[in-house]
Amino acid sequence: MTMNALRDFPTVWRVWLWLTALTLLAAFLADAHLTPGHLALAALSVAWLKGLAIVEHYMALRHAPAWLRLTVHGWLALVSAVLIFSFL
Amino acid sequence: MNQSVTLSASANPREVPGDLAMWFFILAELLVFGVFFLAYGYARAHDPATFVAGQRQLALGVPTVNTLLLIAGSASVSAAVRAFVLDRQRTARRLLWLTVALGMGFVVLKCGEFAGKFAAGITLSSDTFWMFYLSLTFFHFLHVILGMVIIGAVAVYARDGRYRPGQLAGVETAAAYWHMVDLVWVVLFALVYVAR
């Protein structure tokens, strides 16, 4: 982790800004008069994007063994996709 | 630590950040929350009217602020790990306590939200939506508290300078747990509060 952590140091705050912007976007979408299906698609897609950033940059799994990285990404993708499907 | 020397190393073996046992625990937690989420989706698909009626009673302001608090907590604990890497002990400890404080903000706001629901007569048996809302958010709430305890414990242990470059498994493990709590909330926020 040591070398990877140093290389990623400036990324921490950029990712924080990205996640903050996506959170505010999600809150905006909630009042955007979308159909339930479209709102669920938008909200859960935004959640998936936020999850990607958390997994890759904060959990630092982009530097982790592939099995661990794929398992967590697989969880996020499966949960997001099935939930979106449940709204359609 | 010589940062230029460290950064010049190009061949990094892929490493599990923190303790492998904690990662198995995190994967088990994700599995439990995943089943919970899918059960919510299944129940909602079979009775959308009940869920829509319940979700319309949820204000979006507090959960949005809570999301921002957890995200800021993830950023601060990530920065703490990197500060330990640079052997900036004092900065790292302050960032850990900042994470705990942000978690405390989440807990206070969440308690207010729960109190409002209980005052309105909402219980687990009110209907299917409120059963999921209360059980899912309270289960996550407990994880936030556990995350705060873990991060706080690491901050206390760090006072003796045990987390040095190359000896960061403890702090990385605590950070991984906090990020898991954040990751689950990101999905929960979208599912329960936004997707109405």
Automatic annotation (TrEMBL), chain A:
Any Pfam family matching the protein: COX4_pro
Gene Ontology cellular component list: plasma membrane
UniProt keyword terms in alphabetical order: Cell membrane, Membrane, Transmembrane, Transmembrane helix
Segments traversing the membrane: 66-87
Main location class: membrane
Entry annotated with the keyword Transmembrane: yes
InterPro entries linked: Cyt_c_oxidase_su4_prok
Localization (cell): Cell membrane
Membrane topology of this protein: Multi-pass membrane protein
Protein name: Caa(3)-type oxidase, subunit IV
Organism: Pseudogulbenkiania ferrooxidans 2002
UniProt lineage: Bacteria, Pseudomonadati, Pseudomonadota, Betaproteobacteria, Neisseriales
Automatic annotation (TrEMBL), chain B:
Main location: membrane
This protein's GO CC annotations: plasma membrane
Gene Ontology molecular functions: cytochrome-c oxidase activity
Transmembrane segments: 20-43, 64-85, 91-109, 130-156, 176-195
Topological type in the membrane: Multi-pass membrane protein
Signal peptide: none
Domain (Heme-copper oxidase subunit III family profile): residue spans on this chain: 1-196
Protein name: Cytochrome c oxidase subunit III
Native organism: Pseudogulbenkiania ferrooxidans 2002
Higher taxonomy: Bacteria, Pseudomonadati, Pseudomonadota, Betaproteobacteria, Neisseriales
